[in-house]
Structure prediction request, 377 residues.
Amino acid sequence: MIPLSRPVITEDEKRNVLKVLNSGMLASGDWVEEFEKKFSSYIGTKFGIATSSGTTALHTALLALDIGPGDIVITTPFSFIATANAILYCGAQPLFADINPATFNISPESIEEKIKSLKNPSRLKALLITHLFGLTCQMDQILKIVRKYKLKLIEDCAQATGAEFKGKKAGSFGHASVFSFYSTKNLISGEGGMVLTSSPILEKQCRKIINHGRSGRFIHDRLGYNYRFNNIAAAISLAQLKKIDQLNAIRVKNAHFLSQNLQDIGWLSLPFVPLGYKHVFHQYTLKLTPSSKEKRDHISALRNRFVKYLQENGISAAAIYPKPIHRQPFYYRNGYKNIHLPEAEKVSQQVVSIPVHPLLKEKDLKKTIRAIKNFVL
Ligand SMILES: *Cc1c(COP(=O)(O)O)cnc(C)c1O
Prediction:
């Protein structure tokens, strides 16, 4: 089976982990600090606060920005559920804007529509965007909205380590940005995450939040959590950081090979990379766009049959994501039943992600292409 993702672990990671084990200093320490410094400087922010996961990094960033009960945060319905859940953890309310179906990212036009429809605009505090699948959002329009409505901007970069918009890296635009180093992401540590910011005030708050509100020895001046990272995981991610550009370049090359060979298939729409964007292909995501109305009317059934067919042919494809967040049972039951976001709902029935990770061999890519070409629609 060709897996959908696989981490690249070499001698470098193993050597680093052994050094940590031999040192006896397994919890958060020098390795974590070094990773925070190197990663934040790689992305282009002043500070990095490493956390136990991308989810805890999201929670930490929102709390540091003072998001709390009664606040509204605009976000995307087409992301991993952690993005919206972190807003709920703070007691705030996610307000979903629709997506641009060509890029899968939140639509600036829809954000403005949602803002204009607010009955009490003073409750709106922040915009939490996700750079999905490795492609950044339309940052020029997003930044315009952020300035116009005086919002806090948080970037969820869990899938976009190394992605760029007009030469600037994802994670360098927001008041705070968040990364995940979960085992399937472009840069991994097993489990882990980071909040990046260039604000010393936010940095200080984040440090407290991840460490039980600690402000000094046995002094705790706010409510906090244990969201700390650790040296073993930092040792892995420091080794990964050295080769992230190389790993992303292989993803881009694999994506290019797939696109070159799939472009003539009429019923498929391929990943779109707008001019000026650097896509890092966390996922290579196709959309099923058949011309027959009959097939379009039953698109999710066709998509599911296509995913199953690929799996039966030894290729682990997956529908990512098969349901937008507002259609997840938990959200549906808790106030989102009458929310309609047609683009996100439609796209979630069309999408199929296929393997693009750096450990694929040319024969794996060719096998995938052959299987797709032989699919009987
Ligand atoms: C993976 C992911 C997260 C959560 O990260 P974890 O490290 O798994 O907690 C959040 N947002 C997006 C978009 C993700 O892909």
About this structure: Residues 36 and 48 are 5 Å apart (CA to CA).
